[in-house]
Amino acid sequence: MGLTHHEHGVRNVVALANLALARGWVGREGCGLLPIRGHSNVQGVGSVGFAPALKEAFAKKMEEVYGIPPASTPGPRHLPLHGGGRDAGRSASRVFLGGNLFGSNPDRAWSARALQRIGTTCGITTKLNEGHVHGRGRYHVVLPVLARDEEKQSTTQESMFNFVRLSDGGETPRRRASIRSEVEVDLRARRAPAPPGPFPFETMTSHDAVRRAMAAVVPGYAPIASIGATKAEFQIPGRTFHEPTFATPSGPARALR
How far apart are CA 106 and CA 119, in angstroms? Predict the structure, then answer.
């Protein structure tokens, strides 16, 4: 993760890939390049749309199925929004879906100053972390939610090897019986304040319903629609390469500048 959490993160990764090519670590059995994710299910989060830019096939499906056209302009980036950009300090509210945005920034003092300028922050989280103290807005709400092994409904995760697997629900501890799952809190919050829109949030009443919605729009995710019943893991096609062939005109890999 240190390679990417850096001013020249992209160039760092390119340099490492070029080194691997020069040393013959790519294109033969037992070798290769594999990014290690910093949090569980980051791979799956990216697959279902939480990425800097939506892939074209994903955006096309969203428009076909739900009538939601792709955004005409890029969304706000984290650093300009909270740092020194024209929108800094103007955020009325922010909702944090787990994680620790304060602690994930390399400059803790800058991160604290930026996040504390926000008017209202809400953390949907399975446990408290220092971000709820140092990285909160002027008014802060914490909504505790059930962890994955406490939810009664099954959940899915995507591994770094592009396998999507089912995780059976667990038993909610008695002391947390009144706490809801993260999915339920998020979907209820989205349904409550806004009038009906193109996406049918009102029908997202179970994890199976959410997975069917994913299957309709996420490329390679069709089997997730029935994974709650089949319990069969599947691999996303077109991501793992078992043959030493690269998508270049000549076939071999090429170093990047």
Answer: 23
How do the domains of the chain map onto residue ranges? 1-36, 41-72+152-175+195-257, 76-144
Query: From its phi and psi, is residue 50 left (phi > 0), alpha (psi between -120 and 50) or beta?
Result: beta
- Give the Cα separation of 142 and 130 in Å (integer): 12
CA–CA gap between residue 204 and residue 249 (Å, rounded): 45
Nearest 5°: the CA angle 28, 32, 35 is 170
- pLDDT top residue among 215 and 7: 215
Query: Helix count (H) and strand count (E) of the chain?
Result: 10, 6
- Gap between the Cα atoms of 106 and 132, Å rounded: 17
Q: Identify which of 190, 197, 194, 193 has the alpha carbon closest to the alpha carbon of residue 66.
A: 197
- At 111-159, the pLDDT tens digits run 898 888 888 999 999 989 999 999 999 999 999 998 888 888 899 988 8
Helix (H, G, I), strand (E, B) or coil at 97: strand
Q: How far apart are CA 59 and CA 217, in angstroms?
A: 8
What are the residues whose beta carbons fall under 8 Å from the beta carbon of 229, sequence distance 6 or more?
A: none
